[in-house]
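ESCALATION

Customer reports they have been waiting on this structure for their group meeting. Please prioritize. Original submission:
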Amino acid sequence: MTELDVATEGYVQALLLTYLDDTHADHDQGSGDGPFLDRTYVVTDVHASYMEAWREVVAAFINENESDVREYVDAFSDGREGWSMIGYDLLLTRSGHGPGFWDRGLTDVGGRLAGAALALGQGPPLEIANVFNRV
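Update from on-call: job pushed to the front of the queue and completed.
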């Protein structure tokens, strides 16, 4: 796996852990409560077109913030973990889920990466019926 593959997988893992599955039988349409996507899906369930689109988002973010990304990744003892966290924190930060780049004890670089992630906006709404190979 390339560094970009690992970062993209981290992005999708964060998505699975933070978005509710409104197609799940346990989802309550009235309250909006229900299980998160990771209860039903894994990374390999994502349709190839979505994986490619998210890979492009992650690649552009890495390219546009290369020195800060390298500093962020180097702060982790395991390079793979660092690359995974780039994708993970990119999704968390740009989606406004609270934790993210600023939550890892890397104040300056974390702040710059958070600003870059927030500048991307939240992205289009997630349409679960289109994202996963099995719905």
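Sent to customer with the following note: The CA atoms of residues 74 and 82 lie 7 Å apart.
Escalation resolved.
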